[in-house]
Amino acid sequence: MFKLKSAFHDFKGRWSDPLDDYVDRLNCAVTVTLFSAFALILSTKLYFFSPVSCIFPAEHTGLKHWVAYYTSRCFVEGTYRMQHSNVSSSVYMTGGPTGIDIDNGKMSFYMWSPYVLFVFAFLFTLPKLFRELCFYFQPLDYEAVVVEVKKVDGFVVQEEYNNYLKNSVEDIMAMCNYNNTSKAFGIIASIGYVVQKWLYVLNIWIQFYILKELVGDGKMSWGWTMTTEGLFYNLQSKNFPALSYCRVDMKLNDLQEFDFPCVLPINLLNEKIYIFVWFWLLLLFAVTMCSAICASVICFIPSVRQHVIERLMMLPSDHSLDGRCMKFFVNEILFADGLLMLLFVKEYTGSIVVNNLSRELWKKTVESEDNFPMLRAIEHQKACYDYLMNKEGNISIDLTYPPPPSCIPSSVPSEASVQKEKVKERIVYAIPA
């Protein structure tokens, strides 16, 4: 009972994993479920109903055990394809010796068709296992972060909302061991995430190749060809023939080989399912390829990463925040894994929550004593000029740039302390509300 409950939770988790986007769910949830269902349907037809029906000689038709024996034998040994013109009419109706070479027409794929789909379904679970392995060795529990941040939607009072969000950011920084590392986040999780996407692409391509060799007669476009030729009228399809022949040894006067016409109802089902699988893989390949390319560009190109974070923070295109301050925040604090965390939050909670979370991370970055020297060292001539021209402490002229270290008087500690707090406020509030 407990195992069934655990299996149900594992299955349900594939559809509701907060770290999966819709492309991941198409691969690891929808496709796995579809292929497993198809495999169960084919297995039921194969082992509980009659996958093969053959016509045997008249002298054996009255003996049910002989008919059952030959039918089972044809199922186990496999049947073969043969054109009507190669077999006399007596073979169709009563069976008879033919002496025809059947090596090239032998087929037994229908016995393995459910297992192929089970293997395909299993292969779609491997990329996610690789991603989870990469996440396992990271200090930050991404799933816990996403689930906890989601709870902020339950707060009605603004003060409670802000306090919970602030505490969430502090927990995130604590998990990242923020004060003891040069970067709050790293890149390993992003590598695992992007590699997962490309593993899905590789997996789909491998399955295309397997289908081409097993049922496609060596052609990648076999699914489209079979569809255009007609799904319901071609009983002698080269890929999934519904009419075939079975050769068995029978001792009448002496030992002779007989060929009997057979019908394969299971191939009618195989044909429809495998053509659907071909089109599904084609659609999945296109969608997953686009997703893999986008994930690679967003995670590993700094300029794109900065643009995405600015969008998540809902900054206008003409914001007054110094670009170098933002680069420090993007490349030295968030880096690839921080952006990945924000994308997970956006996927699971929405744009408003991720906007507030990213701004809270920005405030935490500016207020940190470890980051202040670096932020203050982002020099700009205009900031220095404005500061030197306003020595009384009026630094409200330009809210874009913090004053360089050389502009801050070091002889008066109290004034420097006040100046530090004003600089922090200036950088924080450079982000428009």
UniProtKB/TrEMBL annotation:
It comes from the Eukaryota. Keywords: Cell junction, Cell membrane, Gap junction, Ion channel, Ion transport, Membrane, Transmembrane, Transmembrane helix, Transport. It is found in: Cell junction, Gap junction; Cell membrane. GO terms for biological process: monoatomic ion transmembrane transport. GO terms for cellular component: gap junction; plasma membrane. The keyword tRNA processing does not apply. One of its GO terms (molecular function) is gap junction channel activity. It is a multi-pass membrane protein. Structural component of the gap junctions. This is Innexin. The lineage of its organism: Eukaryota, Metazoa, Ecdysozoa, Nematoda, Chromadorea.
